[in-house]
Amino acid sequence: MTSTTPADPGPLTAAIPKAYDPSETEEEVTKRWTTAGVFAAEPRTGDDQTPTYSIVIPPPNVTAALHLGHALNNTLQDVLIRYHRMLGHRTLWMPGTDHAGIATQTVVEKRLLSEGVKRLEMGRDAFLAKTQDWKDEYEAVIIEQLLAMGASCDWERTRFTMDEMCVTAVRHAFYTLFQDGLIYRGKRLVNWDPVTRTALSDDEVEMEEIEGHMWYLRYPLSDGSGHVTVATTRPETMLGDTAVAINPADPRARALRNKSVLLPIVDRVIPIVEDDYVVMADPDSSDGKAKYATGFLKVTPAHDPNDWEIGLRHELPVINVMGPDGSISSEHGWEDTSSEAQEFVGLSREEARSAIVAWFDERGLLEEVRAYTHSVGHSYRSHVPIEPWLSDQWYVAVTDDRLRGSALRAQNPTQSPALPDDAGHRTDAPGDGAMTFHPDRYARTYHAWHAGIRDWCISRQLWWGHRIPVWVRLQPIEDAGPEIGAAVADAAVDEPVFIESRWVAAGAAHLARKVTETEVEEAVCVPPGSSLRRLDRTDSTMDEAALIAAIETDGFVQDPDVLDTWFSSGLWPLSTMGWPWPEDFPETVGLLESFNPTSVLMTAREIITLWVSRMTMFNRYFRQGQLPFDDVFIHAMIQDGHGQKMSKSLGNGVDPRDIIHTHGADALRFTLVQMTTDTQDVRMPVDLICPHTGEMFTPEFITTSAGHVVAAPTQTSPNEPTKSMVSAYGVATGAVTATTDVPLARNTSSKFDLGRNFANKVWNATRFALSRIDPGHAPSITVDPSSADGSTTFADQWIIARLAQSLGVIEEALANYQFNVYADTLYDFIWRDVCDRYLEAVKPTIDGNADQQAVLGAVLDAVLRILHPVCPFVTEALWPHVAAVRTGEIVGVALPPSELAASARWPVVEPLASAGLVVDTFDRADRLVGAIRTLRSSRNVKPKQRVTLHVPASVRELIAASDGMIETLAGVGDVVDFAAGDDRPPAASPLPFEGVEVLVSGLVDELDFDAERARLQKLIEAKATQVRGFEQRLANPGYVTNAKPEVVAETRERLETTRNDLRAAEAALTALTN
RNA sequence: GGACCGUUAGCUCAGUUGGCUAGAGCGCUCGCCUCACACGCGAGAGGUCACUGGUUCAAGUCCAGUACGGUCCA
Questions:
Q1: For strand B, which nucleotides have at least one atom less than 7 Å from a protein CB?
Q2: Is 0.90 surpassed by the pTM of this model?
Q3: pLDDT score at A15
Q4: To which H or E segment does residue A747 belong?
Q5: Is A790 helix (H, G, I), strand (E, B) or coil?
């Protein structure tokens, strides 16, 4: 060891400011990554067996900027991606965005409407151009946000669900499913949104509690012998009634058998049918339905899903009395319109409701009206009540075993309930039983959803989306030609039949079905050109355009609808990797083989059904059973400070850029990771930043009529009462607009101080190291911490032992998605161990100790590496500085050099053989340090003042073993021997420690005997209570016989040491009193 | 109506198979501008683990129920 003068804080050190300023480093660090191209994924080639790791981003909707929920989602993905990249895996994080059909169309339409432009007036092409602009704008915002957060996606591969690659996948998937009989068109009741005029899938319908009414309407029997009373919440639908139903068990049923009623207004004679579905009247029932029921149910198959089922059972006619806008209409299947009924045609459903109730009331046919609270489906987009409406829609037969059964069989059998009888058995086939949920309770959510699944309505009456690749022709059977006629001759109405036509010879798929007994509808599905070229077809003269032109010439018209957004999202893990024809997009060659199945899908739980299920079905169907992902990790949902879901309409969503602005990206990330446990929800109280003064304040809250607690639209500056600002809630509701004088207040939250302070701590620990390591000092040194030659200090051995321990905990935590354990372990190791203990302990020795400088450099290097996945910016910024002061090698600690932290290898640390003893010794020493510090603090001893320790032999050994650490950390000057019988030094405070007495002198000039005695008395009482507790436990025979032997032994040991402590304290008190 | 989650310090949250004196961060109190960091250092106070009952030698932890809050599904 050569001695050196303290390192001169050279230019490098001087250049590092005292506090970490994220805004100055983040952009520059991002550039370093981009320039180096470290995020680019390289698929495996040849017989390369390097492990792979891949994630496809849940593509954010291009409707709006990302909020904290996205920040959480993407941070967790980035942690895993960066970690596996450091492990040396071939790593792909696929970025992209979702066109979000209905959601985007709605926001664009709203924006246009505010400018006075209507979608229908501007036309399809112009509207799509506007929507494309919107998409471009928000896609750019989203990518900017992800970059600002440090997401290490392979940006060169950024996809969009409507780009060329995804279009090909959608077209090919649709064609394949169509060809395989898994896509069909049918007249069904759909969830109709009369405002956006589109069908919605079941998942897009939100149930809301409505305080409405139950109307009791009298329907006269057609033989004039009386009437029946039906109860309904939707009187307007009575125009389409085609029966009245009664439960066969109802005592009145026999008398009414084979009778009919004359439907008022319409004068339609409709039968009384008997059906088990009907709830019998029971005024005393606790069940709302029975309580309000009359026992008679009006049956409207065209306007109620349950009535539809009843209609099927009793072969009732289906009469649709509404148009697509929800108004009463006689043009959509209602033919027996009486002149009386004509009065109601054209009314909106709300107007019709009042008018019909009034009509019944005027004629004495309204028996009663009662208040009634019930759930009503609402459109998740327009928020108006859904109208069950009969229309032609396209469906995917997800109830088919090839989809539903396959999705169920994918589940890891150890965490899902038994497969339903109709779902077959798991086999050795790829993917079966291989999909695992974390936390595992979500496996049941997934399972339960598939148990009750219905066919998936995929057509949407929108413009923004993937156009349905089907051309349709409807005509009388006799006009359709002999082949079609023959093909459908024996088929039932609505039963699809595949046709072998010239379109099929040219590569299309061709279906026909009778719509009625006399009309046939043909549908021709055209695959994308790239698939067409590869087909083995008998007529290969036509390319895609020619084929479509020919079909259209023959009178076919392309379906105007687009596909449900989730159809393209469901293909995301496939389409982004170039499926089905990667060779057409050369950059995607090899991706599927290397990276699908992806390693994990990270998402919030609300999307398990919508998305996870469909990706599983599609990926397995199109890739021979292969799963889209092995694991599904469901993370928490971030709520606001009042336990409310963050939503656009409440304006309580927080833009991650606001947090990055006040705290930095690393602080954002670290805090989010630190709060990720396996619970469902986390609360995030949010404050505002006054745009006038820059100070943080808690906004004034108001309660909305719906009971939500939100920031008042206008807020007053806390210290400038004349100035005001608007809240995001105010802007979201349109109550206020931000102006120059009254600007929008940005959000912040003191929750993120945790991460900001931590990043700053790392920054300063590094600054310390840079000022104390002399890089020219023995650069080729080799330090062996396991060597007993005294070349490494106790502190050095201990910190390496702790590094190894922490690494083990972190690796296990990340393997099990325990993100908070990862963050907490980092925090403890870096702050408590490295900074509070290690750095403090080495201060007196490091300047002259080249070995210690090498250890410190290595520890800092390792810290940057293990912290990098969660705090990539500060670690990358410090990386070159730490690399510059690395000297020598530490035996057993592998930290290979790297240009960038982002491409560095994860540390490998071999555990020291003596680690257990070293850590034990440290813990004992640390307890002694703590006891001395407490004593010092209670006497107000200045930090610089040294105290003298008088110790018995056992403590002398501990002090020697810990190599000066106790003296440094506790501010101890001299240590002198002291045995039980020795004369007591003057003004020395007794300190019972490990059952022996230690004396501390030099604290004060004069001892306050009363205070000393009181302190000891308190300690004695505490120890005595503990001793009694242990004694009682051991006196209990049940404990001694039943508890695990090691637990009992531990209790005995603890009793022993506590007794010794008690004795030592009592002896000290006696000595003090004499 | 069904399912799931939560209720632990003033606040936000940890607490793996039941077993040391129930932990952290913030806030609070006291003392420190101790030559990396006041976004800091040292010390401390603060909890009937929502409630009721049960299982057990032993319950924050397991079981049953209640209350309140939240989410998803119908």
A1: 1, 3-6, 11-15, 19-21, 24-26, 30-32, 34, 36-44, 56-58, 69-74
A2: no
A3: 64
A4: strand A746-748
A5: coil
